[in-house]
Amino acid sequence: TLTEGLLRVTDTVILSPKVSEIEFYTMLGSAEMGSIHPIARAIVEYAQSISCNLSQPQDSQTTAGMGIQCTINNSLFLAGNRKLLDMHNVVVSAQIEAELTELEEQCKTVIFAAHGDELLGLVAIADSIKPEAFSTVQELKRRKIDVWMVTGDNKHTAAAVAARVGITQIYAQVLPDQKVDKVLQLQGRGHKVAMVGDGINDSPSLATADIGIAIGAGTDIAIESADLVLVQNDLRGVVTALDLSRVTFNRIRMNFAWAMMYNLMGIPLAAGVLATYGIIVPPIAAGAAMAFSSVSVVCSSLLLRTYKPPRIPIEVNNLHDDSVTQVGTEMNS
């Protein structure tokens, strides 16, 4: 949601002396052909760009929030994050841990590849942060709206991205159903929650939030689950949507107040409350006054056509905010 969605392979670290880069990406690319995830597509495209001969994997199985496993050369092949390796007892050395942390702190997502119980290597995937992300977050904060980032990425990548866009409250390594839990937790504290998302994993939380806002360039299921769809792939549309809803609601209240006062004064006059004082409203005038009440409200509402969205210039966060709140298994109170 905060990034462009144009994933690309930036780093490759091959750990096994038994495989070449072509062999490594042939196995990894073939395994990822069983997934429709954007990261998987980026790996497949890179493997094809270096002329790897890919084939459909056997016994392919995707684990949400972890990765994919399949059978290659009669052995289990894993492609995913650290959680997937831990599940299958694949050992990661301290040296690789240091390499992993370094890549993640550069806002890169790292995918491990293991064949059997041997760790073959890792791939770093990078995406560009949307240029309007920082400006949008700052404008939301200026409007006294708390901004949380809830992501399935690891804590290092999440913290790096959050620092660049000015978000100080994050929840990382979240599975799809856990995103729903975070929405429910905030709602349980009496907050009104607006969820902005664009992926399949965001769909349950979009449906659970008080307002689900989908990015127009997102997946069909996310768009179907949302209450509001931003036609343009621009995060500033979130501020525009909230501002327009505020202006519209204020117009409704103004119309209601105007109509209430007008009718409280006009109806008694038309009924002849002042007839004893010689003030009588002719039926034609009363009918015209009633029509004017309706017309005035409609004309007032039509003034919304003159609405202009708030101007939010794109800014760059040159001073990264290091006060990011790292969140573990529970959300901050």
Describe the structure.
The chain is α/β, with parallel strands linked by helices. It has three domains: 8-126, Calcium-transporting ATPase, cytoplasmic domain N, CATH 3.40.1110.10; 133-236, Rossmann fold (3-Layer(aba) Sandwich); 240-306. 43% of the residues lie in helices and 18% in strands. It has eleven helices and eleven strands. The protein has helices at 21-32, 38-49, 82-87, 94-104, 133-142, 155-165, 176-188, 203-208, 220-225, 236-270, 283-302; strands at 8-14, 58-63, 67-72, 75-80, 108-115, 118-126, 148-150, 169-171, 194-197, 211-215, 228-230. The strands form three sheets. Strands 1-6-5-4-3-2 form a six-stranded antiparallel β-sheet. A three-stranded parallel β-sheet has the order 9-10-11. Strand 10 (211-215), helix 9 and strand 11 form a beta-alpha-beta unit. Helix 1 packs antiparallel against helix 2 (38-49). The model is unreliable at 321-333 (pLDDT under 50). InterPro entries: ATPase_P-typ_cyto_dom_N, HAD-like_sf, HAD_sf, P_typ_ATPase. The chain crosses the membrane at residues 256-280, 286-304.
Looking at this protein, list some descriptive labels.
43% helix, 3 domains, 11 strands, six-stranded antiparallel sheet, three-stranded parallel sheet, disordered C terminus, Calcium-transporting ATPase, cytoplasmic domain N, Rossmann fold, 333 residues, alpha/beta
